[in-house]
Amino acid sequence: MNALVHMAETEVPQNPLVPPIPELVIGLIAFAIVFFFLWKKLLPSINKVLEERREAIEGGIEKAEAAQQEASDVLQQYKDQLAEARHEAARLRSEAQEQGAALIAEMRAEGQRQREEIIAAGHAQIEADRKQAAQALRQDVGTLATELAGKLVGESLEDHARQSRVIDRFLDGLERDAGNAEAGSANGAAR
Amino acid sequence: MQKEPAVSTDQMLAFETDCHLFSGCGFEAPGLHSFVFEPMFSIGGFDFNKPILLALVGTLAIVWFFWAAFNKPKLVPGKLQMVGEAGYDFIRRGVVYETIGKKEGEKYVPLVVALFFFVWVMNLWSVIPLAQFPVTSIFSIPLGLALLVYILWVGLTFKRQGFVGAWKNFTGYDKSLGPVLPLVMIIEFFSNLLVRPFTHAVRLFANMFAGHMLVALFTIATWYMLNGIGIAYSVVSFVMTIVMIAFELFIQVIQAYVFVLLTCTYIQGALVEEH
């Protein structure tokens, strides 16, 4: 019975929505302790490490990216150099070709020139030889004709001047006859 | 009158230990009296009872855990730090960033994290052997926290929106509503400024209160029926106890989560630009 009385006095089930003040105070203090530790000490501490970890991971990624960038730069450089070398080689080759062609053309021109020179020289030589031969022939024919005429007429035509005159006159006569004959034959052909 | 229905004097068990079915004593169901505790001792005129002690021990447990996990954090975390980080990250990313946003929310992360773990551990006492009492089923605890959030929310609203803007915010002022506007403003005023802290606190309190009641009911019934043929009923009741405890574990997390989610929603409502 005592206990019942006790309950009736102090533990009358009251409205549970009427908050007991000591619990309210203690609850707030307890929460304040939790909040204070987390806010001031523990969360900043873990945030720092989380940030460091993030940086460590991202730093690694950044490093890898930098290495990749460098590698691709070097590759690009090599490619550029290679292209440049190819270009240079092509340029040299075409230059050499041009030079070769120029050389060939020059040599051809030179050969042509030399050939023409040689031909011209040959022509001149032939002409000179012909003239000389004609000269020599004229003299020989003259001599022979003179001798023959001398023998025939018995008259020595030793005198050079006279001889020459006679020969010339003879030859002229020959040439005139030949000219007439040609003209006659030409006339005959025309007719 | 049968044996005196009373809470045991040491307040550790909420029912008589020698009362069984068929032993001539009635079933003493848990009720409001299960939530009232005698002071166990007092220091300097201040009485300490079971909920207060549990609150203090729970506080120590939380601080100890996070101290062990976060005080000397390592880049490569140990097990404890990993668990702590998972919980911290869940609240920070899953609740604060999701509702308030990363930029504005960062400031409120410590508050919300502390709130979540405090509420959760206070709920968790419900299933810890020997304690077996959710501290949050004492209305003072959720009420204190809800008032804290309420003061923060009202203060923030005035600070961010100015005097007129704050009242517009509280009353849901929106010109396009036309003639319905006065009605809406009255309803919004009541719902925001007067009812909100109450519902915020009661939602948590009532869930834990009812949960504790259910677990206590089946626990007491299991013990009470443990006599003769009653053992068969007792087994059923025991299974129900286990089921309810598992269910409570789930509810405890959900309620802690809902409490901080609502906190974040209120803070976010105070921060948004005038609409």
TrEMBL record, chain A:
Name the coiled-coil region(s): 47-102
Q: Output the InterPro entries linked to this UniProt entry.
A: ATP_synth_B-like_membr_sf, ATP_synth_b/b'su_bac/chlpt, ATP_synth_F0_bsu_bac, ATP_synthase_B_chain
Give the membrane topology, semicolon-separated if more than one: Single-pass membrane protein
Q: Which UniProt keywords apply?
A: ATP synthesis, Cell membrane, CF(0), Coiled coil, Hydrogen ion transport, Ion transport, Membrane, Transmembrane, Transmembrane helix, Transport
Q: Which domain of life is it from?
A: Bacteria
List where the protein spans the membrane. 20-39
Q: Does the keyword rRNA processing apply?
A: no
What CDD domains does UniProt report for this protein, alphabetically? ATP-synt_Fo_b
Record-level GO cellular component terms: plasma membrane; proton-transporting ATP synthase complex
Pfam families from the xrefs? Answer: ATP-synt_B
Keyword Transmembrane listed? The answer is yes
Protein's cellular compartments? Cell membrane
Please list the GO terms describing molecular function: proton-transporting ATP synthase activity, rotational mechanism; proton-transporting ATPase activity, rotational mechanism
NCBIfam families registered for this protein in UniProt: ATP_synt_b, PRK05759.1-3
What is known about what this protein does? Component of the F(0) channel, it forms part of the peripheral stalk, linking F(1) to F(0). F(1)F(0) ATP synthase produces ATP from ADP in the presence of a proton or sodium gradient. F-type ATPases consist of two structural domains, F(1) containing the extramembraneous catalytic core and F(0) containing the membrane proton channel, linked together by a central stalk and a peripheral stalk. During catalysis, ATP synthesis in the catalytic domain of F(1) is coupled via a rotary mechanism of the central stalk subunits to proton translocation.
Family of this protein = Belongs to the ATPase B chain family.
Oligomeric state and interaction partners are given as:
F-type ATPases have 2 components, F(1) - the catalytic core - and F(0) - the membrane proton channel. F(1) has five subunits: alpha(3), beta(3), gamma(1), delta(1), epsilon(1). F(0) has three main subunits: a(1), b(2) and c(10-14). The alpha and beta chains form an alternating ring which encloses part of the gamma chain. F(1) is attached to F(0) by a central stalk formed by the gamma and epsilon chains, while a peripheral stalk is formed by the delta and b chains.
Protein name (Swiss-Prot/TrEMBL):
ATP synthase subunit b
